[in-house]
Automatic annotation (TrEMBL):
PANTHER family: OS01G0127400 PROTEIN. The lineage of its organism: Bacteria, Bacillati, Cyanobacteriota, Cyanophyceae, Oscillatoriophycideae. This is DUF3326 domain-containing protein. It comes from the Bacteria.
Length: 350
């Protein structure tokens, strides 16, 4: 193979009620299919995390959202690894029994999956996560004691030589009952997702190290009408396993080229919901020689399209169609050649 690897980025922004990717790992089938078409797929925890469910994809890179933004801007490269030492931060606000459940989940990934974890650290102060909702309906949140989170991460990095950080913060159980009920039944916005992003962004920005978050919550009452898209979060006491699996081989961020590092100018295509095009990574990659593919049936609570921004993009109806565009692009075939009418080079088609 003489050509360079075909590299695509798959983004489904978190906390915006995406019809696909707005629930518990329900965009993972899209990533699995896309990984078969591409040589390298770059995506983020919101796509790959499914609570206790996950899937190993050897050619897929698990990149936290802030790190993905810096990558798309060309500031950071992604350096593939065989293995990371993953440090675990537990919020002091987690009750003893619930803390034990998360420690057992971490031990299970060591014994059953062979992951390399360092010692865990409990924050010196409860993090005090609070949830918010924007006017658009997107979720976000705040941390009452971000300094405590950073001190815990610093300890893991300096004393335990952690190369990636998993965080488990205690989230409020008293989420608006209607919002939570809608989410569990496959409607509306994940009320936790926006706050989760704030937590991981803080650590990645400060330490330039892979990070992802799993919320600690009391198990919800059994409901036999739960949507399959939300069902992964109904399976146990913790959402931690998928985070530890993702971080175990998450690429490291680098600022200088390495022999196998990946940079933004090597990205051939970006696939993103059609109404969620206002993010930093999307805007940065649109300025590169990257083919932008937007998916119209993955509706969101936002309404920012490529047309609104003056960005050239290929709009497709579904991820099935997006896979076809990627396959043709990788093969060097014009998608116009796959349509029943091909116009002469001397004339324009309507």
């Amino acid at each position: 193979m003489n050509h360079r690897p075909y590299t695509a980025v798959l983004i489904v922004p978190t906390g915006i009620g995406a019809a696909i990717g707005g629930y518990a790992g329900d965009a993972l089938p899209v990533a699995k299919a896309m990984a078969q078409v591409c040589d390298r797929l770059i995506t983020h925890p919101n796509v790959l995390n499914g609570a206790q469910l996950y899937w190993p994809l050897d050619n897929t890179f698990y990149v936290e959202g802030y790190g993905l933004d810096r990558f798309a801007q060309g500031d950071w490269g992604l350096n593939p690894v065989h293995q990371n030492r993953v440090g675990l931060i537990l919020d002091r606000g987690i009750e003893p029994e619930l803390r034990t459940r998360h420690i057992q989940a971490a031990d299970a990934t060591r014994a059953t999956l062979g992951l390399t974890l360092t010692d865990y650290v409990v924050t010196d102060t409860p993090l005090q996560v609070e949830l918010r909702t924007a006017d658009s309906g997107a979720s976000w949140g705040t941390i009452g004691h971000p300094d405590s989170l950073l001190r815990a991460a610093h300890k893991l990095i300096t004393h335990s030589k952690a190369e990636a950080i998993a965080v488990v913060a205690r989230f409020p159980d008293d989420v608006d009952s209607l919002v939570l009920d809608n989410y569990r039944h496959g409607q509306g916005v994940d009320p936790l997702a926006g706050a989760e992003a704030v937590i991981s962004h803080l650590i990645v920005r400060e330490f330039r190290i892979p990070c992802a978050h799993a919320p600690a919550l009391e198990p919800l009452p059994v409901d036999d009408t739960i949507s399959p898209r939300a069902a992964a979060e109904e399976l146990g006491y913790t959402f931690l396993p998928c985070v530890l699996v993702g971080l175990s081989r998450a690429p490291q961020f680098v600022t200088q080229p390495h022999p196998y590092s990946i940079w933004a100018d090597q990205v051939d295509a970006l696939v993103i919901p059609d109404t969620a095009c206002g993010g930093s990574a999307m805007l940065s990659l649109s300025e590169c020689n990257t083919r932008i593919i937007t998916v119209t049936d993955n509706t969101t609570a936002l309404n920012v399209t490529p047309q609104d921004l003056g960005i050239e993009a290929i709009a497709v109806n579904s991820y099935l169609e997006a896979l076809g565009v990627l396959s043709a692009h990788k093969a060097g075939i014009s998608i116009d050649a796959l349509r029943p009418v091909v116009c002469s080079i001397s004339q324009a088609c309507d």
